[in-house]
Design brief:
single chain, alpha+beta, Glutathione S-transferase Yfyf (Class Pi), Chain A, domain 2, 7 helices
Length: 203
């Protein structure tokens, strides 16, 4: 059975859990908390020297880090990885966008406001910077979703799983999703897709 090591309320850790749920694939969840130092423990570092979660352990004991790499691995041969060459490249494009433009603003601002231990980093300048960058990323998403049902075309893909994880939590980061009606409608489409589970779901 696949094992996912991760934090229950992390959007990055939610991504592979959500995809596995939609695929109907059973897995084991092992809670590993980056906030209490357990990702720096020797037994965890032996699995992932980078000391971060999520971490996927395959049935044969191999390890795969980085949430979007996990999505691509798990989606191989399923409806979540487009067969069309261009649509597949679009899915990759939005995965890169999620990690470089979306997550560093939307996820980081959420973390600054949600986790007490981040309080020293919660400066007015940092909050303003992440708000501006996050709204810019949400506006790019809004523009795409004005003309497409999903990010890689008319069918849901790994790109939607990746972007859903922190976008549906954006309100906890102080973002007003009411300003982005196409994004809000897309969130509902993702949630209506079979097998959907909330972020706090465990198998």
């Amino acid at each position: 059975m696949i094992t996912i090591y991760g934090m229950g309320d992390s959007g990055n850790c939610y991504k592979p859990r959500l995809l596995l749920a939609k695929l109907g694939i059973g897995f084991r969840h092992v809670e590993v908390d980056a906030l209490d130092g357990s990702t720096r423990a020797p037994d965890f570092l032996a699995k992932n020297p980078n000391g971060k979660v999520p971490l996927l352990e395959t049935e044969d004991g191999r390890h795969l880090a980085e949430s979007n790499a996990m999505l691509l691995y798990l989606a191989e041969g399923t409806r979540f990885l487009p067969q069309d060459r261009f649509e597949r490249a679009l899915a990759y494009q939005w995965l890169f966008f999620e990690q470089y433009s979306h997550e560093p603003a939307v996820a980081v601002r959420r973390a600054l406001l949600v986790y007490p231990e981040r309080a020293p980093q919660r400066t007015p300048a940092r909050l303003a910077e992440t708000l501006e960058a996050g709204n810019r990323a949400l506006a790019v998403m809004e523009d795409r979703l004005d003309t497409a049902r999903f990010f890689a075309g008319e069918a849901m893909s790994v790109a939607d799983i990746a972007l859903y994880a922190y976008t549906h939590q954006a309100g906890r980061g102080g973002f007003d999703l009411g300003l982005f009606p196409a994004v809000s409608a897309w969130l509902k489409r993702v949630e209506a897709d079979p097998g959907h589970v909330p972020i706090d779901w465990r198998p």
